[in-house]
Amino acid sequence: MKPLLREFLPEIPIIIAHRGFKRLYPENTITSFEAAIRAGAHMIELDVTLSRDRKMVVIHDDTLDRTTDGKGWIHETDLAEILKLDAGSWFDPRFKGEKVPTLEEVVACCGGRTFINIEIKESAYEPEERPDCIEQQVVSLIQSSGYGHQVLLSSFHPEILFRISKLDSRLLLGFLTEEPDTESVFQFAGKLDLYSWNPEAMSVTEGLVQEIHRQNIRVFPYTVNSVSQAKALVEKKVDGLFTDDPALMIQGLNCSRQR
Ligand code: G3P
Ligand code: MG
Asked: Cα 206–212–214 angle (5° rounding)?
C-alpha cells in the first residue's frame, strides 16, 4: 500500500473540501481554496480541464455559463479570454472580480499548505495521446512542483488514470464512480494500483468498504453535507469524505488537523 497520505494525514476521516469551501465561497476559486485551508480541510479538491489553447484551467463544467459571466465551451475559449471573466459574482456580488484560476496558480498558492486532489475532467480526455495532453501537463506540473507526495489525482475516466500511471507510477490515483460500480473498481484496481475509490456517497455500504479495504484501497465518498450522513459513513469505516462545508464536517466529526 502506498503510505504517503496516511503518513502525513493520520486523522480519520480525511476531510476533503469539494471545489474548496463551496458552500460559502464561489467554487474552484483561490478564495474558496483559501477558505477551505483556513477551515482546516485536510485536502482540497478541484476540477481541471483544457482551454482551446491547451492551458489547464480549474473549473467544473464544460462551459463557462454557470460559474462565470462568460458563455460558451471552455475547450473553444483561449485562456486569455477565460482570465478576463468574473467567476465570483454569479455566487454573490461580494466576490466580484474573482478569476478562474489556472492549475499552476492553485498549486503555487496551496501546495505545501494542504493536500490537493486534482480531478481531471472526462471532457479533457483525448483518445489520441498528444505530447501536451492534459495527463502529461498535470504530471509535469506536479513533478516540477515538488508536491507530488501531497497530491491525489482522480478521474471518472479510467483511461486518464492509466495514462497517469504510465507517466509516473508513484502518483496516487483515485477512481471516481457514480453508480455502486464495484466491478469496475476491482477490474481497474489491480492494473492501476489505486490509492482510493471515490464513490457517490449514497452507493456506499459497509460490505463494499470492507471489500475495497481488502484490496488496500481507501474509500472517499462524495459529496457529504450533513453531519448525520457523515457519521453514518464513518460507521461504515470510510477513510474520508468530500464535503462542500469543511468547517461543519471538522466540527461535527471532531477531526481537526493535528500536526
Ligand atoms: O471528486 C468528487 C467530486 O468532485 C466528483 O464529482 O462532479 O463534483 O466533480 P464532481
Ligand atoms: Mg470534482
From this structure: 105
- Which residues constitute the domain of residue 129? 4-46+101-253
Among positive and negative, which fits the CA dihedral 158, 160, 163, 165?
A: negative
The beta-strand segments (E) located in the chain are: 14-17, 43-50, 56-58, 115-120, 151-155, 172-177, 196-199, 218-219, 240-243
Residue 28 pLDDT grade (very low, low, confident, very high; cuts 50, 70, 90) = very high
CA of 160 to the centre of ligand 2 (A): 14
Model confidence over 86-145: pLDDT tens digits?
999 999 999 999 999 999 999 999 999 999 999 999 999 999 999 999 999 999 999 999
CATH number, residue 206 = 3.20.20.190
Q: How many domains does the chain have?
A: 1
- CB of 27 closer than 6 angstroms to any ligand 1 atom: no
| Model pTM score | 0.95
Q: Do strands 43-50 and 14-17 pair parallel, antiparallel, or not at all (unpaired)?
A: parallel
